[in-house]
Predict the 3D structure of the following.
Amino acid sequence: MPLQDARITGLDLLRGLVIFMAVFEHYTGYLNYWYIDFFTREHALWDSFYLSHKAMAGHLLPMDHITAQVSAWLIPWVSQIYLALAAFNLSRRDQASFRPQLKSKLVLFVSIIAVLYVEGLVIAPNFGEAISFYPVMLWMCLLALFSLVYGWFGIRGMLVLTVLGLLLDQFGVQTLLGHIDSWMKLHVHPDYELDARLDLFMASGCFGFLYGWCWHQRPQWRDRLNRLVLTLSVVALAIYLRLGETSSVELNDIYANEHELALDMTGRAGIWGMEFLVIGIILWLHQRNIRLCWRPLNWIGMYSLTVFIFHKSIFVHLWGPLLLWWTARQGTILPNSFGLIMLLCCASVLLIHAFQRSGIICHLMGMHQDRDWQRLYGK
């Protein structure tokens, strides 16, 4: 296996942890908003079977303090680090071997966005949320942009793009995105949300790509590269700890301050410092033949998109209704506790694992018929 093709197990572990935390955040958020977004579907039973829940209709359901503490420490950089890791992997090829793959990569990213919109139509409580633009969609757009720039202009083009990414605030991008969000709310749907801010995410992706390019294309630099990244990460974290504000989470709404830390350069320095300190430590250990691996998290990391695509539907159509039914039988309201959310996250991953391992996806897509199709009808 070529050196640049070898998977780094520690990064799979980290990606798995990041995706698990994303599932944790989303499940907490679904419980926060269940009585606003989804309980209306049971309106006919409010005065009978769901009487214990009726008083909560239209209200947010607060999380417990343990969940809030965990979220405050992990959520600000979870969204950023997944993009950085994806960009790191995107740079495995040199420009000459990358360009022939450019079309297929662009088709892949567009297809993922299309699947995410289909998922939104299946699970969203209204049309506005179904067509909203979320961070994972922005990540695919940015990865497509990185692919175009790298395929046509090489690493120099990515260096220029990185500088532009750091200067987006100066170009009025934040104001423009705010106008787009307001226009969509006014003319399309009041619940539309432009939740993916280019100015908050682009630099993380660019840094991840540059780190990956140096790692894959210049293996002789790896030790010095890691020392440089770790040093800069510590400096960035020190600046944030000295000058920045502590991240916080509202008990009633896990999304309220989700991107608050990234709104100024000091907060972003803290995010970049944290994410690249963790990545740098993993790569430093990898260089010393210390392979970080815990199979459950590594599986999530390797099949990250599979987990991401299915976890929301499982909650909206299985766990949420089951919890509502069970608590109605007990005469109580929904819980929103750390232990419950962890249990549901683990159960969802196990369900997705069983679904993926069963091979049913391949059969549903007809992939087992591909060879016969080509033999009988050609491509």
